[in-house]
Amino acid sequence: MNSADKKTAGWKEKVRHEFIEYWINVVYLMLIFAAFTNYRRLLLAAHDIDYTNYGVAVIEALVLGKVIMVGYAFHLGRRFEARPLIYPTLYKSVVFSIFVGVFKVIEHGIVVLWNGGEFTEILVKYAGAGFYELMANSVVVFVALIPFFAVKELGRVLGNNKVRTLFFQKRDNP
User: Which tens digits make up the pLDDT trace of 142-171?
Assistant: First the structure.
């Protein structure tokens, strides 16, 4: 195999790996956001309020799956990787929750500006009830990211193949 073939094979393998990683992130986030959307729907139904924004959970998972991958590309949260796994797990959960929160503010700001609003509208929104919604969303994302990063950290330390084997292959010992 010559050098050009190795580069092509390496590039294809990297794209394949990134594609699989993205969809693992999206499926996990979609399950979490759908569960919380269903929770919100049930709470509001107790007050006779209809809520059916399941599409928002899907779109948010698609976007945040990519946001997490961008965060990884910029090496966010790598500070405590040599310490016991609880440290990098919690640290990455905090860092990525903040990253997602900042992204959500930017996302809402772009929507306001796109619809002809002004920058002050963004500030007014987050100075009022929008701040509480952002904080509630950040808490949900933080809690959801703890098991997410715990498994990723196990994969980093033990190897992804070992974790995949532990979770998805039958073991002889009951």
Answer: 998 999 999 999 998 998 888 888 888 887
Over range 114-127, report the average pLDDT: 72
Task: Say what the pTM is.
Answer: 0.77
Q: Which amino acid is at 18?
A: E
Output the furthest CA–CA distance in the chain (Å, rounded).
67
Query: Cα separation of 130 and 51, whole Å?
Result: 18
Give the other-Cβ count within 10 Å of 60's Cβ. Answer: 24
Residue 10 main-chain phi, psi, to 5 deg:
-65, -40
Distance CA 159, CA 157 (A): 6
Type of residue at 106:
I
Contacts of 84 (CB under 8 A, 6+ apart): none
Question: What sections of the chain are H helices per DSSP?
Answer: 3-45, 54-73, 86-114, 119-127, 129-158, 160-168
